[in-house]
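Look over this today:
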Amino acid sequence: MLFRSYIASGGSISCIPSGNVTADIGNASGTGSLTGTVNLNGPVVISGVSIGNGAGGGLVVSSRANSLSVGSLFIGESSSGNLTVQGGGTAAATYVNIGAAAGSNGNVSVTGAGSQFSEAGGYLTIGNIGDGSLSIAGGAAVSGDLAAIGESQGSHGTVTVSGAGSQLTTS
């Protein structure tokens, strides 16, 4: 059974039922567009997250007390999506796609000492068919198994690493 949660107009994710659960943050459906930014509240484990799927959306992981563990993570799936990891927060995914579709725009910002964003066992794509950007600053760390930047013709991918101790590691 797949549970799907559409999240809009701000708020927080704090308790997700166990099982195969996905969340759309910023979604367009027959009832109109839902936009918003969600702040993570505590550790969350979920099978899939789509940020910016038809309407703009954002997700903030803002402290050491907050962590996100997800199977598939789309930032800017078909619209504009933003993921911010800061203040020692952590986000981990098996598959990460930043700027997934034509016309989409995905942005990931990982800032501050102890802040971490990782992909393991899948693929980290920055600018798949759309535009994607990854910014790592202030001692933050990003790691991935396989990475592609500007993967398809017409896509754009950028990676910026700045500040002492900031790092991007791929294997």
